[in-house]
Structures are given as structure tokens and as C-alpha cells.
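2024-03-11 09:14:02 DEBUG pipeline.ingest accepted 1 chain
2024-03-11 09:14:02 DEBUG pipeline.ingest length=471
2024-03-11 09:14:03 DEBUG pipeline.predict start
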Amino acid sequence: MTTVPRFAVVGHPNKGKSSIVATLTHQDSIDISRLSGTTKEAQTFSFQVDGETVYELVDTPGFQRPRQALQWLLERGADASQRQQAVREFIQQHQGNAARYLDEVELLGPIIKGAGIIYVVDGSLPYSPEYEAEMEILRWTGQPRMALINPIASEQFVDEWRQALGQFFSVVRVFNPMTANHEKQLTTLSAFAELKDEWRPAITIGLELMRMHFAKQRLQAAQIITSQLTEMIGHQSALPLDERVGLELTKKLLRENYQRHLAASEQKMRKQLAELFAHHSLTWQSQDLLLDYPELFDQGHWYFFGLTKQRLLTLAASVGFVTGAAIDASVGAASFMSGAVAGTLLSGAATLFASQNPERIKVRGLPVGGKQVTAGPIKNLQLLYVLLGRAVHYSSCLLRQTHANRNELMLQDNQMDGLLTNLEKGKQVRLTLLLQKSRKELSENQRHELTDLIAGMLTAIDATENVASSG
């Protein structure tokens, strides 16, 4: 059985220790505050994959009186052979004592019991010799140590810190818990293996588990998007046409009902995705975290998530050609590819026509007499891609959002055209065809295919983010 690596995250107060713990354990329940001294006692948090603990991090209070504590140790540890014992005696003497070394006892306790050390400093502030007392105390523990430079406001003094920390720690890394993507987290975990050989097997397994976990999350996100997206595309609302109410008012009421349903479905999808990525506090009822989406049916904002007109017409024509070619194949060479040509022309024309009526409101006669007004399913290809683009973009925001980052999710101009470039042309056409077929029930194989295409887009986004971060 491999040993689960355990690390105590220590340092000066208010240097982002809790933020680092939150990001590396993927827990947004960890209390994070700009006020010094938020963490009063040591708390252990674990990162788990399918119930298996990959590693544990102990969030600790900050050093309060390191110079006085070091002086106490110097008076009892005459040489290196006595230093670790001196630290034990320091903890024993001041354990449970409400005196002045309460915080030092809390942070040193897990270390002396075998936890590795992650020492956190702020790279946006200049190095000061006052930190040397803390680092010397940590060296006295004899435990494996690494340092993380957290550039809270900037990286202005990172190089200065590297020079100083290298004299006390065998591994020094820059780690911003507000922006650390999956690859950065994996790289940091792999550095842990450099500290202690007996941790290496567990960390190697942990790295593989984490990669599988992130891949599984992307697939599960794609499954959620497929489920809700196909429901939204195929949904149809209806109201009976009452001559006393009038056609225009009935259309207005129906449009409102239809749009409310789609908005509720989209909100449900966002909540499911937020839960999947363990952002439990990210709810649409909360005022703390908001995603400023424009109105779904405001076509003025569709450029955010939809396709350019050229890409839209090209895809529509390609789908029409493929569909028409299938008809030609079924009737043999006698059609002389007329089905493919007609399909191309009709699909392009239908795309332009459908853009004028995104809700697809129609008046239908009823078998028993009377009429009803219906809205949906969605035929507007641009709206199909707007819905997909919003879902994929929201997922990509969650992929980037670390669990230390409690700020608002901010939208950027992220057109679907850019996302589609990650798919080869044949897959783009197939994606378009599957979105259109979602107006009716997709077969199980088609749903799997749509899920795989969306998962591929999310994987490409994650890979792009990792490359951009490493660069």
C-alpha cells in the first residue's frame, strides 16, 4: 500500500496559504480572506479521485513570533543532532498553552508528525531577512521542504525570492492559486516527488488519477451539455388561439413562455456544470458570483457565441450537400447529383429564412377544431450554435476558474468560429447535422457522437489554456 503524501502549508500570515490549499484540493468551502489571521488552527483537506485520496494538505495559521521561537530553540539545540528534538520539546512545552506560541505550535505540529513542508511567500513584496527565522525553524524540523512563490499582486520580486529561498529549500516554484490551470497543478504535484523517495509511487499514481479525473470531468460536462441542449432544441410550446385574446397577444405570451423554458433549461445546465466542477457556491441565486450573459434571444449579442455569416452558410450548404448526396445514393446515378445540388441551395436559403424567426412561431389547426399557436423546435442554425457556444464557453470558464478564485466569472468574446477550428471539416459538418437532428429524438449512437464532439472541443480548450499558461 502506497503512502499518501501529506503536506503542511505554512508561512507568514496573509500570503495566500488557504488559497493554495483551496486550489490544490479543489474545494471552494475553504475560508479565504484578505484579513490576516483568518486560519486559527490547523485543518486537513484532501484531494480525492473517486473516493481515493491522492494527497492531503494541512492549512495552518501563520507564524506570529518566529524570532522568539527560534531563540527558544537555539538555547536548547546545541547542534544539528539535537534540533529536531528541540522542536518536539517546543511543541510539548507550549501545547495547550494559551500563551504566545499558540500559532507556532499549531503549524509545527503536523510537520513534526511527518508532514512535508510547503512554505508560501508573496512574490509581489520584496524579500526581507525577517523571514529567515521562519525558514530556519522549518529547517530544524528535518522534514522535506519546498517553497511556493505566490505572486499575489505582481511578479516584481519573484527573482529576489528565488535567490533567497534556494538557500533553505530544495524545490522552489512560482504558483498563483488564482490562475493555476490543470497542467500547473499537475506540475506542482510532480515536484512533490522530488522531496521524498517514498512518496514517489503514490505521486506517480496520483498524477495519472488526476489526468483521468480531468478527462472524465470534460466528458461528463459534454454529457450534461448534450442532454440539456437537445432538450432545448427539441422543445415545443403551444397555446390555444382564443379569438378574444387575438393572435398577436397570443404570440407574445407564447414567445415569453417559450423563452422562459429555454432560459430555465440553460440555468439548470449551468448549475449541473458548476456542481460537476465542485464550484458549489456558484449558484444563480447568489449575488456573489454572477455570469453576465446577454439575453438569450437578443440577436445583437449573438456574435458572442454564434457563427459568422460566412461560416454559417458554408456549414449549412455542406450539410445540405451531404443530405442531398445521401438521397442521390439511394436512387442511383439517375439523379445526376441533383439531390446534392438542390440540398446545398435549399439548406442555404433555409438558413437565411430561419434567422428571421428564431422561435419558429406557427399557427396550426387542431383535429377537433380550433387553432393553436406553437413555438419550437429550433430550426435557426445560428441559434443552435449560440446555445452550444454559451454552454461550451460556460464550461471553459469553469475549467479556468480555480477554487481559490471567488471573483465573478467574466465573459470574453469567444465566437464559435474559433472553437470550430479545433474540429476537422468533416466533424464540423457532422456536428451541425447532429444539432439539426436534435429537433427530434436522437438515437443513442447519435447522442454519444454529439457528446464526443463536444468533449473534443472542451479538451482542445483545456489544452490551449495549458499551452498558453506554460508559455
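2024-03-11 09:14:41 DEBUG pipeline.report Confidence is low (pLDDT under 50) at residues 283-292, 324-354.
2024-03-11 09:14:41 DEBUG pipeline.predict end
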